[in-house]
């Protein structure tokens, strides 16, 4: 009986990451990966990745950000596909999200004029649990960006160790140049439509770019209004409108960075840290850096950047937080309150010498040229604190120049750890703080990613380790589910 069951189970027949059945490998390699234009087979992991990328470019030639994410992610799977070719079929399934929703968001501005934006929710994978992922309000947001963010969340939530799937969403709406009442009306209109597709057992949205505490409150308030739902402060969908630990993701980024340096016999204490961005994530990164004895020296926004040569202390950081808490306020106001700050000097923030860089502003902010300048200025490590702030070429420079690199797929895993769903299904133990849980989980994630990189002969390449480890956790379950 047991032998029959083992024969029928794809997981038992072909093993996990360490499966070495030559018969199983040959069986999978003899199967065509694609059949639409004739049977297409591969012999190596590199060939499989090229076939997958070609198929994606044919299907979505104009989805620039999504294709960038695939080109950055799939090559990291080559050593895994060389050992276990069966995973190529799972990678093919992940080229498509399970569901993509697009809808109109109509609302009235303060002048009484009708306005319209486009809203999205891409429910990418429910393999490990209900969909979970950020909502992003950005005037330049597109469906390709939402799809890319959804795919990246598959790996991030998998690494978090939580029973969470992956999703992403948002709208091409800029909350920074809107009044508070306009933002509230927009959020209510957006949620009226989004509420048809989300819920505690289906899809749990979270914070993202342009969606902070005020927006979460407005969104949840409308969700509660149109659903038979009772608020659960700090838990469940959108934390019942009141996240208990909104700085958790930023603190997780810092804890991961500290583990990276500890692995090299060092720490963040005393390190001069260049922080880009000035949203809730960047500010929480700076706050935790101060707690650990590091020295944050910069912030940036769409108008420019400010630099404190001797660093931001707690009082100066509170001033920045106060400025950024005012909707639409720009960082340039900070120089009025400081006699030592420099604004847009030097012209490029990445020309400021620093030991560690926390890139927490926007996509592709560090290219190969800026990566070279960072290396030449003696930068020890670059940590991603946003979705894909470093280009593929920049990562290649870091590897060549020996600069430590913390990939966002691992550093942002704190999002799942502090999600309302996770705090409801896995409440804190007596005496346990949420900050302590984040610290422990980020240490575990670093060890997981680091060990996976070593296992697949990519020692020190935490990006490859994060992609492989996150992928395998999802892929093994998808194999058991079959072609769905």
UniProtKB/TrEMBL annotation:
InterPro entries: Aminoacid_DH-like_N_sf (IPR046346), Glu/Leu/Phe/Val/Trp_DH (IPR006095), Glu/Leu/Phe/Val/Trp_DH_C (IPR006096), Glu/Leu/Phe/Val/Trp_DH_dimer (IPR006097), Glu_DH (IPR014362), Glu_Leu_Phe_Val_DH (IPR050724), NAD(P)-bd_dom_sf (IPR036291). SMART domains: ELFV_dehydrog. Signal peptide: none annotated. Residues 248-482 form the Glutamate/phenylalanine/leucine/valine/L-tryptophan dehydrogenase C-terminal domain. GO terms for molecular function: glutamate dehydrogenase (NADP+) activity. It comes from the Eukaryota. Residues 16-40 are annotated as: Disordered. Pfam families: ELFV_dehydrog, ELFV_dehydrog_N. Belongs to the Glu/Leu/Phe/Val dehydrogenases family. This is Glutamate dehydrogenase. It comes from Tribonema minus. The lineage of its organism: Eukaryota, Sar, Stramenopiles, Ochrophyta, PX clade.
